[in-house]
Amino acid sequence: MKYQSFIGLEVHIHLLTKTKVFCRCRSAFGDEPNTNVCPVCMGYPGVLPALNIEAMRMGCMVAKALNCTIPERTWFERKQYFYPDMTKNYQISQFASPLGQDGFLELEGRGNSRGALDGKGIKRKVRIKECHLEEDAGKMIHTGTVSLLDYNRAGVSLLEIVTEPDMETGEEAEFFIQELRRMVRYLGVCDGNMEEGSLRADANVSINLPGRGLGRKVEIKNLNSSRFVRLGLNYEIRRQGEALDAGKTVVQETRLWNENRDETFPMRQKENAQDYRYFPEPDLPVFCPDKAFLSSVEKALVELPPERLKRIASEYALAEEQADLICEEKQGADYFENAVAEAEKKGLDKKTAAVRVANWFLSDIKHILHRDGIALRDISSFRLTPARLAGLVSMAASGRVSGKLAKQTVELVIAEDKDPEIIVKEKNWEQLAGVEEIAGVVKTVLAAESAAAEELRAIAELRAIAVTEKRRRTLTAYLVGKVLAATGGRADPKIAGEQITLLL
Ligand SMILES: [Zn+2]
To answer: How far apart are CA 68 and CA 59, in angstroms?
Structure first.
């Protein structure tokens, strides 16, 4: 690579507070426009903002999870600028002492990281400059010749996370956003929905000859998916490289990503940092987090995805790729661990339980959840509870129910909201493992299928002209199939096979 690239991100996340950050209006996506508004968030003169402590707590949780320092004193400033979506002509934000400072997020390459970091175990430490709490602006909707304004979003709690320019490729930036998204969802402070705008990212990128430091910074906006972050940055790195190759200089500017043309285009030039005339917000007191507040932040923290993934892989002896899929959502990982624990209570050893639960969870269960329109994070409402899955796993492991009937049992558990043990009893689906009972069926089948039986007998007695192992297997499987059909799928296929050989 001829040039070195430097990528920094500014990620905005909507905090899941019930009300807005400085007033008591409802904070919700998709409500009737301009219904969640009041004099405070509409910026009427003379009104007073009051800090929503939940927003501060959630912001500090993210700051802690990103290894930031929470200062002893943090406060708000007014960031002055005019725009129609900003009713007061200033935004209440944080500037001099943001709630989280000097942290980092470590990205670690693993099986599913899609080439962002080459190979497992490779790490990149992305420094976090700061996390600051602010209010969101309203939303402008441009239709034809008019622009409409919806102020429902004005004043919604927004946390901005600013990284240092420590990433080099679009893939790394995409990976950073995916990791951050998973983290805030685990913390339960943001739904991470990029389409609805509850997680938005701006990127900045500069390139230079190696050893020359940062180049001229270009900002890219309008990146509303992690994929666009990757595509936009890689496009921009290429474009800037071509400009330098041609002896031109890169213009310091803000560009927009055009998702239909897969390219960036200039929005505005930025010679110097805009002067927002920040000054301390006189209507809000300085916030000094006390012991009680800090311990409430600590208490709300959870085991974060990278640690949980590693622990699950080693504790349950699973491949990292599998553990990664299990840890996709916190609720899914909780479900998995609860089901394994329940299966252990039923006498299964941990490894067997884990392998079986993981197989069910990652194939059939995910498929059914998708089919039935249940989000993974709502798995607590799923009728196949961890305890019920454990019941099924333990019946299958001990051979009490066949694999095929176990799948049918799951459908009935969901349809009838009953325990699998009850369904298997009601349906008389318990696997036949009694040798005598199966032998009786085998005799009947051998008599009815005389041609197949005769051929198999010939093979067994080495009288056949072309004795092939493959043919023997085919015939046996055919006869086992008949035994299963005769018992409604309940006969243990292994015993049936043994009996066929014995009774031939
Ligand atoms: Zn309001």
So the answer is: 11
In 194-329, which residue ranges form alpha helices assigned H by DSSP? 226-245, 291-300, 305-315, 320-326
160 beta partners: 12, 132
- CA–centroid distance, residue 24 to ligand 1 (Å): 6
Round to whole Å and give the CA distance between 62 and 377. Answer: 20
C-alpha 134 – ligand 1 centre gap (Å): 14
Query: Ligand 1 centre and the CA of 132: distance in Å?
Result: 20
CA 403 from chain center: how many Å?
30
Distance of CA 96 from the midpoint of ligand 1 (Å): 26
Residues 220, 198: Cα–Cα separation, whole Å: 18
Q: How many CA atoms lie within 13 A of 4 on its CB side?
A: 12
Which residues are within 8 A (CB) of 380 and not within 5 positions of it... i.e. 6 or more apart? Answer: 331, 335
- Taking CA atoms, 55 is separated from 58, 130, 132, 161, 432, in Å, by 5, 16, 11, 14, 59
Cross-strand partners of 268: 254
Distance of CA 251 from the midpoint of ligand 1 (Å): 40
- The Cα 442–Cα 449 span in angstroms is 10
Can you tell me the distance from the alpha carbon of 134 to that of 139, in angstroms, rounded to the nearest whole number? 16
For the chain, the straight-line distance linking the first and the last C-alpha, in angstroms and rounded, comes to 71
Give which of 199, 186, 158 is closest to 15, Cα–Cα: 158
Specify the residue for token string 């600590």: 298
Distance 187 CA to ligand 1 centre (A): 26
Handedness of CA 294, 296, 297, 302 (dihedral sign): positive
DSSP per-residue letters across 160-203? EEEE-S-B-SHHHHHHHHHHHHHHHHHHTS----TTTTSEEEEE
Output the pTM of the full model. 0.85
Matching residue, tokens 């333990």: 394
Tell me the CA–centroid distance for residue 142 and ligand 1, in Å.
24
Residue whose tokens read 């943090």: 74
Tell me the per-residue pLDDT of 77-109, one tens digit each, with 9 for 90 and over.
999 988 889 889 999 999 999 999 999 999 987
* Alpha carbon of 31 to ligand 1 centroid (Å): 14
pLDDT at 439: 85
**Cα angle vertex 171, ends 168, 177, to 5°?**
100
Q: Over the stretch 318-328, which tens digit does the pLDDT of each residue have?
A: 998 899 999 99
- Which residue carries 């909780």 as its tokens? 334
CB distance 205 to 6 below 8 Å: yes
Q: How far is the CA of 152 from the centre of ligand 1 (A)?
A: 8
Q: What is the enclosing helix (H) or strand (E) of 132?
A: strand 123-135
Between 262 and 92, residue with greater pLDDT: 92
Rounded distance from Cα 162 to ligand 1 centre (Å): 27
Q: Do the strands 90-93 and 157-163 form a parallel or antiparallel pair, or are they unpaired?
A: unpaired
